[in-house]
UniProtKB/TrEMBL annotation:
Monomer. It comes from Muriicola jejuensis. Transmembrane segments: none annotated. A motif ('KMSKS' region) lies at residues 288-292. A motif ('HIGH' region) lies at residues 37-47. This is Cysteine--tRNA ligase. The lineage of its organism: Bacteria, Pseudomonadati, Bacteroidota, Flavobacteriia, Flavobacteriales. Residues 375-441 form the Cysteinyl-tRNA synthetase class Ia DALR domain.
Length: 494
């Protein structure tokens, strides 16, 4: 087969509101930037959905044999409590104050958690993972540039972006579809204490008050950078002034991404991004999953089943399959029923892949395997339509089962296309892992865990709770959860 990428990949560009043919700036290469997490708390499943969506996109671009440089940052400073107006305490500094630890301890703890969780979901690491605090100098340079071009002003040691001035010669709001006039009539008036000239202006640099611990020297005095600026600095540094794809959750479109565009256009005179991709939200009980409202679930609660929403534990691969069953631009609602249905589907897929290598070829082919493979590509080339891809892969599952049962045959060539395509898309593109164990090992493991359950029961009967807890906790640390029920103790492996 010719280069996979000779086929036309189309993607939905939030900037133009259209599906467009993907043509990278440099033939064969893709530069992609995705806004990373603010590491002040454990990532919830909603955050994970966005990162999984872009992992699937990264994987498909790689499958198309592009050389992809994927940059996903870590926000470890500058993200203030009120995203919308950019005010309040720094999220990381606040957590550090409440826990009486160093801000960098907060950053370390939640960066490690983020990496652990993404690894469980089988996300590939990005090519570069830069931090905001590691790029203060670059951010200061951009502020100087914007000041020089006249699109920012300094006041009392802080620097603000002048949105009204910028909008006279540029289009502020073009990504989010907002008009500055509407924003002006909808936002609160400035008070006498406000330093901004207009309520829409946003901070590029904020003066640090004496109690603010996360501070750096700058030409305007000690302070810290505004949240939007870090992404402009890091994307420009690693991908250039104009690059191919910028992604993030839908909720970042405004103000974060709008401000990124304004900062780049003001400092370089160039529009920074060719294709803007926005991933939609994971909801729970119909409402956006969010840290701030408490309407969220942590990945570990799903892996252990310890949450009132769930009747049981689900493995990371099942959760990933559940996410891939929705298009990345659609809202997806999490529920126990939906996860249970995904678990069945995932198992059917894995069962088919488990027998695929033992299939034997025949003299003729009963199915048109080449056109089936083409439909896999067509699905992904249509703005990464993973739910359609999965439906086509289930046709593949049917073929596998028919060949296995002797109800249909495939030539050796078609059989090898079927095998390769199934494995490529399930493992490499969707990033699903086979979590089925060899049946002999599984039998031995099951015997060993039953023995431990029996020993735990004996320890409990003799009131030796130290031993019984130790058995439960150490098994749990290995990813084996014991569940006590009416019919005795059962276990699940995540
Ligand atoms: P944050 O750490 O708050 O900056 O968020 C990290 C990423 O998670 C951003 O791209 C957000 O858009 C995304 N995100 C936050 N909540 C959700 C959600 N409920 N569903 C999907 N993505 C989300
Ligand atoms: Zn960002």
């Amino acid at each position: 087969m010719a280069l996979y990428r000779d086929q036309q990949l189309k993607l939905y560009n939030s900037l133009t509101g259209k599906k467009e043919v993907f043509t990278p700036l440099n033939e064969g290469h893709v530069g992609m930037y995705v806004c990373g997490p603010t590491v002040y708390s454990n990532v919830h499943l909603g955050n994970c959905r966005t990162f999984m969506s872009f992992d699937m996109i990264f994987r498909y671009l790689k499958h198309l044999e592009y050389k992809v440089r994927y940059v996903r940052n870590i926000t470890d400073a500058g993200h203030l409590e009120d995203d919308e107006i950019g005010e309040g305490e720094d999220k990381i500094a606040k957590k550090a104050r409440l826990e009486q630890i160093e801000p960098m301890e907060v950053v370390q703890r939640y960066t490690v958690d983020f990496h652990n969780i993404l690894q469980k979901f089988n996300l590939l690491p990005p090519s570069i993972e830069p931090t905001a605090t590691g790029h203060i100098i670059e951010q200061i340079e951009i502020i100087k540039e914007i000041l020089e071009k006249g699109y920012a002003y300094e006041i009392n040691g802080s620097v603000y972006f002048d949105v009204v001035k910028f909008n006279q010669s540029h289009e502020y709001g073009k990504l989010s579809g907002r008009r500055l006039e509407d924003m002006i009539s909808n936002t609160r008036e400035l008070t006498a204490q406000d330093e901004k000239r207009n309520p829409q202006d946003f901070a590029l640099w904020k003066k640090a008050e004496p109690q603010h611990i996360m501070r750096w020297p700058s030409p305007w005095g000690d302070g810290f950078p505004g949240w939007h600026l870090e992404c402009t600095a890091m994307s420009t540094k690693y991908l250039g002034e104009t690059f191919d794809i910028h992604g993030g959750g839908m909720d970042l479109k405004f103000p974060h991404h709008e401000c990124e565009i304004a900062q780049s256009e003001a400092s370089t005179g160039k529009t920074p991004v060719k294709y803007w991709l926005h991933a939609n939200m994971l909801t729970m009980n119909g409402k956006k999953m969010a840290k701030s409202t408490g309407n969220n679930i942590l990945p570990n609660e799903i892996f252990s089943g310890e949450n009132d929403l769930l009747s049981k534990a689900y493995s990371p691969a099942v959760v990933r399959f559940f996410m891939m069953q929705a298009h990345y631009t659609s809202i997806l609602d999490l529920s126990d029923e939906a996860l249970m249905a995904s678990e069945k589907g995932y198992q059917r897929l894995m069962d088919a892949l488990g027998i695929i290598d033992s299939l034997e070829s025949g003299k003729t082919s009963a199915m048109d395997i080449s056109s089936w493979r083409q439909r896999c590509y067509d699905a992904m080339n249509d703005d990464f339509n993973s739910p359609v891809l999965i439906a086509v892969l289930f046709e593949g599952v049917r073929y596998i089962n028919q060949v296995r049962e002797g109800k249909a045959s495939l030539t050796a060539e078609d059989l090898s296309i079927l095998k390769k395509t199934m494995k490529d898309f399930v493992f490499d593109v969707l990033g699903l892992e086979s979590q089925t164990l060899d049946s002999a090992i599984s039998e031995k493991l099951s015997g060993a865990v039953s023995l431990l359950i029996q020993m735990r029961n004996e320890a409990r009967a003799s009131k030796d709770f130290a031993t019984s807890d130790k058995i439960r906790d150490e098994l749990s640390a290995l990813g084996i959860q014991l569940m006590d029920g009416k019919e005795g103790t059962t276990f699940s492996i995540s």
